[in-house]
Amino acid sequence: MTNIIDKPVVPVGELTAKDFKTPIDVRWCAGCGDYSVLAQLQKIMPTLGIPRENFCVVSGIGCSSRFPYYVNVYGFHTMHGRALPVASGIKIANPDLSVWVITGDGDGMAIGGNHFIHAIRRNMDIKIMLLNNEIYSMTKGQYSPTTQQYSKTKSSPFGAVDYPFNPIALALGSGATFVARSSASNPKHLSYVMQRAAQHKGVSFVEIYSNCVIFTDGIFDKWTDKHFVDENAIFLEENKPLIYGLNRDKGIVIDNLAPMQVQLGEKYSENDLILYNEKNLALAQMIATMSYDNELPRPFGVFYDVEKPSYDELINKQITDTINRMGPGNIDDLMRGDDYWEIK
Questions:
Q1: Residues 171-205: tens digit of each pLDDT
Q2: Which of 57, 123, 289, 291 counts the most CB atoms within 10 A of its CB?
Q3: For the chain, what is the HEC assignment?
Q4: Buried b / exposed e across 32-51, counting CB within 10 Å, b at 16+?
Q5: Tell me: the pLDDT tens digits for 12-64?
Q6: How far is CA 230 from CA 227, 247, 249, 298, 319, in A?
């Protein structure tokens, strides 16, 4: 566990991004998208009205898992895939903490996949940032659970035949109460999404496209590069029509319970397009299916945002209610009590 807060306590209103930077050199490959994600996290933390000592950043194993060393708050660098159970324990033990989990597509979706779905179904009040580069980068280029089918990698020289996970659909299907997607190459949008995630009470899941310049350079360009983004990406906005295109001349309608692209003109107008609703789970799940459909634009933004009691809130209430009803427990009395049996 790291505790590298080496500066005096600063009043919340006076905190800046510099207060969340450590003296440790940030070491990723030049051009790695993780630099952008780190910068946005350090920028938004001082805006949340939370004392610096009430933040905790938790990670597993992978390139993105270096975050606890670079953010000047409490941190925990755990084992491969185990960030979420550690983060869950931290949040339950100290509900006042703002707990952020930084993971990757390998760390979070493979060895950590079981922890991922259960932390989400429990609605732990933690923020999960999944930095997706569709490859195992730190271990030198093996395909991951999000690698696109038939991609040639160090571990699939003839093409990966696996069907990839859709992290957005997986989170929605696991019961997430906040689900969003952004990219490291769009810092303004990323900052907005991270702000929304930070303000959400309950589990927040954000998939972030983060470019790996070594093994998957350019795989997200079709949806994130400024030359292509208008024609190939669509940005979800509450109560706004699903419209996109360089000339804002394309949109999405729902046809036969599935999203369909239409050209605006004689047959369709903006009034025919779906108005996005962040509270509509069925709509979020339908839009999530667009993620790997090459005929449809790639959706970015907040897919789903609803409120319900979080696990840490419920479990701590249960503990408090039990103590109020039965009185405080005594571990010595429990261990020395007469409720036992003897095996001969």
A1: 999 999 999 999 999 999 999 999 999 999 999 99
A2: 57
A3: CEECCCCCCCCHHHCCHHHHECCCCCCCCCCCCHHHHHHHHHHHHHHCCCCHHHEEEEECCCHHHHHHHHECCEEEECCCCCHHHHHHHHHHHCCCCEEEEEEEHHHHHHHCHHHHHHHHHCCCCCEEEEEECCCECCCCCECCCCCCCCCCECCECCCCCCCCCCHHHHHHHCCCCEEEEEECCCHHHHHHHHHHHHHCCCCEEEEEECCCCCCCCCCCHHHHCCCCHHHHEEEECCCCECEECCCCCEEEEEECCEEEEEEECCCECHHHCCECCCCCHHHHHHHHHHHHCCCCCEEEEEEEECCCCCHHHHHHHHHHHHHHHHCCCCHHHHHCCCCCCCCC
A4: bbbbbbbbbbbbbbbeeebe
A5: 778 999 999 999 999 999 999 999 999 999 999 999 999 999 999 999 999 99
A6: 8, 8, 11, 10, 51
Structural Rg of the chain based on CA atoms = 22
* Four-point Cα dihedral 8, 10, 16, 20, nearest 10: 40
Q: Are 296 and 261 in contact (CB under 8 A)?
A: yes
Q: How far apart are CA 46 and CA 276, in angstroms?
A: 31
* pLDDT tens, position by position, 311-322: 999 999 999 999
Tokens 């496209």 locate to 209
Domains, the chain, ranges and CATH? 2-219 (3.40.50.970)
337: Cβ contacts below 8 Å, ≥ 6 apart: none
Which tokens belong to 26? 């940030």
The Cα angle at residue 209 between residues 22 and 76, in degrees rounded to 5: 35
147 and 162 in contact (C-beta within 8 Å)? yes
Q: Which two tokens stand for residue 89?
A: 């324990």
State both tokens at 236. Answer: 């979800």
